[in-house]
Write a structure and sequence with these properties.
By secondary structure, the protein is an alpha/beta fold. The chain has one domain: Alpha-Beta Barrel (TIM Barrel). It contains eleven helices and ten strands. Strands 3-4-5-6-7-8-9-10 form an eight-stranded parallel β-barrel, surrounded by four helices. Strands 1-2 form a two-stranded antiparallel sheet. Helix 1 crosses helix 2, helix 2 packs across helix 3 and helix 7 packs across helix 8. The protein is globular. The two termini are 31 Å apart. It binds NADP nicotinamide-adenine-dinucleotide phosphate. One of its GO terms (biological process) is alkaloid biosynthetic process. Belongs to the aldo/keto reductase family. Keywords: NADP. One of its GO terms (molecular function) is oxidoreductase activity.
Length: 315
């Protein structure tokens, strides 16, 4: 399989992405993980303002470029605008670029379809932090401006349902290149993948292992008896099976590990080949959304009164 996918904006996105979300990790830990990842061959890095990892990711990448280990053009960097900056994505991205020490990034995503008050730059909004109107149209105009100004080479979204993508496409001058969503063998996103395929929007899979070890994550995927048995059959590991499943659907996978051994293990997924039987069995697994986004739902101030509103029933 090609290790890159051509996006609708003309950029090539490496299929294997390196996640950098970790509230516990010190920036030195993140920096050394990024150095290790580049050495190992990773070329696609995922961060977000709200992760607090932009500085460390940017520093490690800039050092690698300075030391001529990689060229800037070889690295694909994604960051995301948080809800509190929906009123001005251009200023938010300029701040992200300062955080990272970069002149441009490759991909800028709307992190969640949720507009917050300007002060709410923390992961869990309070009741008083929600803007009543979503106003995605004006947020998207700001995103388009970011691309026009050359602050990013491409724009996209994250955590958007089929319905939200449909309405975005009605007014977008630049269509989103990517929708980054939770996707793994137990949350397969069939409907969304079909819609995105028809509209040339690439689906990028976050939490491709189900986020084991995260406060909100689960070991359900890598502990699944089926995933374990497929791994055994191929002399592989459950994580490699989960990652290769996502890759086999044409998605890029964004997996996080700051551990050298597990980073190597994960990269090994590129060499695994699942057979038709494996894929058929995985299709039968009971589905379970792990990142549900409950924090963004309330029956008073949020535009999403119940969880089904946030995902437009796709949950
Ligand atoms: N757009 C969004 O809203 C959104 C939401 C969530 C995540 N993301 C992005 O996607 C990335 C990945 O998601 P995630 O971190 O939630 O989930 P994940 O990659 O599925 O899981 C990460 C967890 O699994 C552990 N792990 C990694 N490789 C492993 C292996 N081979 N065997 C067993 N455990 C392993 C990691 O610990 P160690 O580090 O100790 O190995 C970490 O605790 C994030 O870092 C972020 O960049 C985006």
């Amino acid at each position: 399989m090609e290790n890159q996918v051509r996006l609708n904006c003309g950029l090539n996105l490496p299929h294997f992405g390196f996640g950098t979300f970790s509230y516990q990790a010190h920036s030195k830990t993140i920096e050394s993980a990024v150095h290790m990842a580049i050495k190992m061959g990773h070329r696609h890095f995922d961060t977000a303002t709200i992760y607090g990892s932009e500085g460390a990711v940017g520093k490690a990448i800039c050092d690698e470029i300075l030391n001529q280990n990689v060229g800037r053009e070889d690295i694909f960097i994604t960051t995301k605008v948080w809800g509190n900056d929906h009123h001005d994505p251009v200023s938010a991205l300029k701040q992200s670029l300062r955080n990272m020490g970069l002149e441009y990034i490759d991909m800028y995503l709307v992190h969640w379809p949720l507009k917050l008050k300007p002060w709410a730059c923390y992961p869990v909004p309070k009741e008083s932090d929600f803007e009543e109107a979503l106003d995605i149209e004006s947020t998207w105009k700001g995103m388009e401006k970011c691309q026009e100004l050359g602050l990013c080479r491409c724009i996209g979204v994250s955590n958007f349902s089929t319905k939200k993508l449909e309405s975005l496409l009605e007014f977008a001058s630049i269509p989103p290149a990517v929708n980054q969503v939770e996707m793994h063998p137990m949350w397969r996103q069939r409907k969304l993948r079909e819609f995105c395929g028809e509209h040339k929007i690439h689906v990028s899979a976050y939490s491709p292992l189900g986020g084991p070890g995260n406060a909100w994550g689960s070991t359900a995927v890598i502990e699944s008896p089926l995933i374990k048995s497929i791994a055994l059959k191929h002399n592989a590991t459950p994580a490699q099976v989960a990652l290769q499943w996502g890759l086999s659907k044409g998605s890029s996978v964004i997996v996080k590990s700051f551990n050298e051994h597990r980073m190597k293990e994960n990269f090994g997924a590129l060499d695994l080949k699942l057979d038709d039987q494996d894929c058929l069995e995985i299709e039968k697994l009971e589905e379970r959304k792990i990142m549900r986004g409950e924090y963004f739902v309330n029956d008073t101030t949020s535009p999403y009164k119940i969880i089904q509103d946030l995902w437009d029933g796709e949950i």
